[in-house]
Amino acid sequence: MATATQRKPKSPKPADTCRWLVRPMPCRDVEVGILCINGVEYAVTLSEGRKAARLTKEGAERTQYHVGLASSACDCPDRKYRNHPCKHARALAAAVSVLPVVDVPELSEAAYFDGTTDL
């Protein structure tokens, strides 16, 4: 008589962790900072109004991901092929939610080139 072997239940996936190593600072019309997601560092560029962001993975490859904060869209393989919110979108949404509101001065394109503003 053959006995069925009991499979050990899967352990739950560890929770994502994120923290700002360098909180975003205004730089022209964007904000830049460094975010650590599950021990991996990403340079973060937040668009004006914090509607979207570019994450650049630190290291030799310097992979870039573009994240839409309102829609949880991301162009990483996890989001593209599995079609569920990825760690980048979840971590960035959580990290941005704890940031204070910062007024980023709006400068016209002409102000960048004609030298009429101090940056």
Structural overview:
- The protein has 119 residues and is an alpha+beta fold.
- The protein has a domain at 18-99.
- It has 3 helices and 6 strands; from the N terminus they run E-E-E-E-E-E-H-H-H.
- A 6-stranded antiparallel beta sheet has the order 1-2-3-4-5-6, covered by helices on one side.
- It starts with 17 loop residues before the first strand and ends in a 5-residue tail after the last helix.
- The model has no long low-confidence stretch (mean pLDDT 81).
List keywords for this structure.
six-stranded antiparallel beta sheet, 119 residues, elongated, single chain, alpha+beta
In short:
The chain is of the alpha+beta class and 119 residues long. The chain has helices spanning 77-82, 87-97, 109-114; strands at 18-27, 30-37, 40-46, 52-57, 64-68, 73-74.
Shape: elongated
**Overall average residue pLDDT:** 81
Q: How far apart, in Å, are the first and last alpha carbons?
A: 80 Å
Work out the helicity level.
10-25%
Can you write the helix and strand succession as a string?
A: EEEEEEHHH
Topology:
Elements: E1 18-27, E2 30-37, E3 40-46, E4 52-57, E5 64-68, E6 73-74, H1 77-82, H2 87-97, H3 109-114
